[in-house]
Write a structure and sequence with these properties.
By secondary structure, this protein is mainly alpha-helical. It has two domains: 276 residues, Fido-like domain (Fic-like fold, Orthogonal Bundle); 70 residues, Orthogonal Bundle (Arc Repressor Mutant, subunit A). The protein contains 15 helices and five strands. The strands form two sheets. The protein has a three-stranded antiparallel sheet. The chain has a two-stranded antiparallel ribbon with strand order 1-2. Helix 4 runs parallel beside helix 8, helix 6 runs antiparallel to helix 7 and helix 7 packs antiparallel against helix 8. The chain is globular and about 75 Å long. It starts with a strand and ends with a helix. The mean pLDDT is 93.
Length: 372
């Protein structure tokens, strides 16, 4: 039977010392196996559809932007998808900090996915990703890229009234070695999705960094799915599910530690995979339909259709743009760029987003709405 760990007496408090997880886990609730079957089926459908979508790389940026927004919002940022995709020089000063945290998350995710070609999910990769995540934002003084060297806590104002106190920093080397071995131990007879669920629980329980553990732990889920070839493209992110069920998310993780019931966490995690895979496939389907509609309108633009096609592909990765952005990207004059955007506006592909007569921004509004 699974035992989550024990509480260890420190100077004036007790920290939680989790059990090593690099061992076989036997599912006790058989309903998990039915959930696992559904989760695998929906991931398979999502993968199949993602391989059929032309130019999917243009759309992945928006998936990552939405993940960055929702994962950061769980931790208290107040930005949204519209702010996250603004050109940086258009961001209001009062939202700059939240914007920077979200853009760091996007950069960290892109970096980590790219690095999977060189090394697998590992503590080394996680530390490098963490360094990007916390660079020049509110957590920049909390050892970016380094495992914590002091005790941290979750909730409350200090160690005395904290809701949860993770393991002491002296215990981290052994715990992280065990976690990394678990990630890569192919001899364990544990289905991959269950293994990822257990790994996420353990990472959040260890809380190995001074800051950013929640965002990083959720990022690792997608990295592992890509690394293990369960995802052909990085189009499945669980943060939206976790944010909409935030209380249940934290309660489920806490309940493992208080009751040794890991099965209930696995069931919660798999329900998130199922719901998110369904939703992600629907978004891809809607993108394909919307793209067909855009292309039908662009074809009717006559001799401007060719450059219009280049513009729409750019907008799929950059859905909020200025005239200068288009002038620079398409290498055309300012007036020609303004006329092209005006043509797109007339056929209701884009809408002006500021209400200004100068320094205007144009949004691919129906496309952005798919990611709300």
């Amino acid at each position: 039977m699974f035992k989550a760990g024990t509480y260890k007496q420190q100077y004036e408090y007790k920290s939680f010392s989790p059990t090593f997880i690099n061992q076989t886990y036997i599912v006790e609730d058989r309903k998990i196996l039915l959930q696992l079957e559904d989760a695998m089926r929906y991931i398979g459908e999502l993968n199949a559809y993602s391989t059929l979508v032309p130019d999917i790389e243009y759309f992945i940026r928006m998936y990552i932007a939405k993940e960055a927004v929702t994962s950061s919002r769980i931790e208290g940022t107040k930005t949204n998808i519209d702010n996250a995709i603004l050109p940086e020089n258009e961001v209001a000063p009062e939202t700059k900090n939240d914007f920077s945290e979200v853009t760091n998350y996007i950069e960290a995710m892109n970096y980590a996915i790219k690095e999977l070609k060189n090394l697998p999910v590992s503590i080394r990769l996680i530390k490098d990703t963490h360094k990007i995540l916390l660079s020049n934002v509110r957590g920049k003084y909390k050892l970016p890229g380094e495992i914590r060297r002091s005790q941290n806590w979750v909730g409350g104002s200090n160690l005395i009234n904290a809701l949860y106190i993770p393991p002491h920093n002296d215990d981290l080397p052994d715990l992280l070695t065990d976690l990394e071995k678990f990630w890569h131990n192919k001899s364990l007879d544990i289905p991959i999705l269950i293994k990822i669920a257990i790994g996420h629980y353990q990472f959040e329980t260890i809380h190995p960094f001074c800051d950013g553990n929640g965002r990083l732990g959720r990022l690792i889920i997608t990295l592992q799915l890509v690394d293990l070839k369960y995802l052909v493209k990085p189009v499945l992110y669980l943060s939206d599910f976790f944010e909409r069920n935030k209380g249940s998310y934290y309660d489920s993780l806490t309940y493992v530690r208080s009751s040794n019931n890991l099965d209930q966490w696995i069931m919660f995690f798999l329900s998130g995979v199922i719901e998110t895979a369904k939703s992600s496939k629907e978004v891809l389907q809607n993108i394909v339909s919307l793209r067909r509609e855009y292309e039908r309108k662009i074809i009717n633009m006559g001799r401007k259709a060719n450059i219009g096609q280049k513009l729409i592909m750019y907008l799929f990765s950059n859905p909020i743009v200025s005239v200068n952005d288009i002038s620079d990207h398409l290498n055309i004059g300012f007036s020609a760029a303004a006329r092209l955007l005006s043509d797109f506006e007339k056929v209701d592909i884009i809408r002006e987003a500021t209400g200004n007569t100068r320094n205007r921004l144009f949004k691919l509004y129906e496309y952005v709405n798919l990611f709300r």
